[in-house]
UniProtKB/TrEMBL annotation:
<keyword id="KW-1133">Transmembrane helix</keyword>
<feature type="transmembrane region" description="Helical">
    <location>
        <begin position="6"/>
        <end position="25"/>
    </location>
</feature>
<dbReference type="GO" id="GO:0008320">
    <property type="term" value="F:protein transmembrane transporter activity"/>
</dbReference>
<dbReference type="GO" id="GO:0043953">
    <property type="term" value="P:protein transport by the Tat complex"/>
</dbReference>
<dbReference type="Pfam" id="PF02416">
    <property type="entry name" value="TatA_B_E"/>
</dbReference>
<keyword id="KW-0812">Transmembrane</keyword>
<keyword id="KW-0472">Membrane</keyword>
<dbReference type="InterPro" id="IPR018448">
    <property type="entry name" value="TatB"/>
</dbReference>
<feature type="compositionally biased region" description="Low complexity">
    <location>
        <begin position="111"/>
        <end position="128"/>
    </location>
</feature>
<comment type="similarity">
    <text>Belongs to the TatB family.</text>
</comment>
<keyword id="KW-0653">Protein transport</keyword>
<keyword id="KW-0811">Translocation</keyword>
<keyword id="KW-1003">Cell membrane</keyword>
<protein>
    <recommendedName>
        <fullName>Sec-independent protein translocase protein TatB</fullName>
    </recommendedName>
</protein>
<dbReference type="InterPro" id="IPR003369">
    <property type="entry name" value="TatA/B/E"/>
</dbReference>
<dbReference type="GO" id="GO:0033281">
    <property type="term" value="C:TAT protein transport complex"/>
</dbReference>
<feature type="region of interest" description="Disordered">
    <location>
        <begin position="102"/>
        <end position="152"/>
    </location>
</feature>
């Protein structure tokens, strides 16, 4: 009921009695309910007119579907023709990250024990990353570092 609790409802009734008075309150309730009924009837008539103008192919058209959230929920999320839920549930991102870490460690020639220090970005004690030390130590004086296509 419009998310109104019992205490709030009692408060609204007491305020209505205080504002309009006990003698005018029944007439006000009748007027408000009559107005709401007319608005609903006008709305339903307008919807029926639009449906009749659109033709028979739109006989099951709902105006709530014009809301973008409802449209996406109805046409994309509920209809799983492509099997997207199955694909989404099939991914285990934690294991994928662990596998990628193993692949990069293997590619860089690191062992499992040195991968934990390499993931922090430094080796034991010094502030220089492990990869830079390997490159610095492997270069001859005057030799250019190897070209890394992934870094550019």
């Amino acid at each position: 009921m419009l998310d109104i609790g019992p205490l709030e409802l009692i408060t609204l009734i007491v305020l209505a009695v205080l504002i309009f008075g006990p003698d005018k309150l029944p007439k006000m309730i009748q007027d408000v309910s009559r107005t709401l009924r007319k608005i609903r009837q006008f709305s339903e008539n307008a919807k029926e007119d639009i449906r009749s103008e659109l033709g028979p192919e739109f006989k099951d058209f709902e105006f709530e579907d014009l809301n973008p959230k409802t449209f996406v929920r109805k046409h994309v999320l509920e209809k799983d023709e492509l099997g997207l839920k199955e694909i989404r549930n099939g991914f285990d991102f934690k294991s994928e990250v662990a596998e990628m870490a193993e692949v990069t460690d293997t590619a860089h020639g690191r062992t499992a024990s040195s991968s934990s220090t390499a993931s922090t970005g430094s080796s034991s004690g010094s502030g220089t990353p492990d990869l830079l030390k390997k490159r610095e130590s492997g270069l001859q004086p005057g030799e250019r570092p190897p070209y890394d296509a992934d870094a550019t």
